[in-house]
Amino acid sequence: MEKNEKAYQEALKRIKEAGEKKDENLFLDGIDLTHLPPEVGELKVLKFILLSDNEITTLPSEICMLSNLQELDLYNNELIELPPDFPKLTSLTNLSLARNNLTSLPDGLFQLTNLKVLYLHNNQLEILSKRIENLTNLEKLFLSRNHLKAIPREIGSLTKLKQLKLNENQLNRIPRQMSELTLLETVGWHTWVREEVEGPYIV
To answer: What CATH number is attached to the domain comprising 32?
Structure first.
């Protein structure tokens, strides 16, 4: 049996077991999975899915049927896109898409207004949408190691934000609206930008 097929069968087995036990957690990390079985959509009580350290490029649309899902961890995969129905995951509070191959984010992502934690570091993102302003419950936003050249002024709407990481991008300016983020405890960005934070690079 090939490695990919073995991983798929292992995932099917764990999904079946979780369904039988009515588990709220599903662990499929580090099994060399390239495709998540669509049967995952049958686990209606799931609240947490761990899919980190695999080789997944796309997600089945069935995952969007998990209306009770609160945490989804896809760290260190090969994702290039998210399914169109992703906004249906309205219960999500924690989402990790870090260390993938995302070049852009779908508008639907910014409809997940219950998100408190959003990890997007180590991708290929060039633009952060102004729609980020919709995620007003965010407390952690990690955007390090992308290709961002600017941060939208609308980030000032994220007044609950406590941790923001922007280091290792291509930023040459920081919006003055960041001063409205009064709860920030941790801010990471390039040292050379920090030196200009009170100067002409604020817009």
So the answer is: 3.80.10.10
Q: Please indicate, yes or no, if residue 61 is contained in any of the structural domains.
A: yes
Q: Would you state the pLDDT for residue 202?
A: 32
Partners of 50 in beta bridges? 27, 73
Total residue length of the chain = 203
Give residue 37's domain range.
3-194
152-155: long-range contacts, CB 8 A cutoff, minimum separation 24: 152/128, 153/177, 153/203, 154/130, 155/128, 155/181
For the stretch 181-199, pLDDT in tens is 999 987 776 533 433 343 3
For residues 142 and 133, give the distance between their C-alpha atoms in angstroms, rounded to a whole number.
15
In a domain, residue 199? The reply is no
DSSP state at residue 107: G
Beta bridge partners of 186: 163
Sign of the CA dihedral running 184, 53, 190, 172: negative
Residue 185: predicted pLDDT = 86
Count structural domains, the chain. 1
Instruction: Report if residue 200 sits inside a domain.
Output: no
Per-residue pLDDT reduced to its tens digit, 145-161 = 999 999 999 999 999 99
Stated pTM of the model: 0.91
The answer to whether 152 and 131 have CB atoms below 8 angstroms apart is no
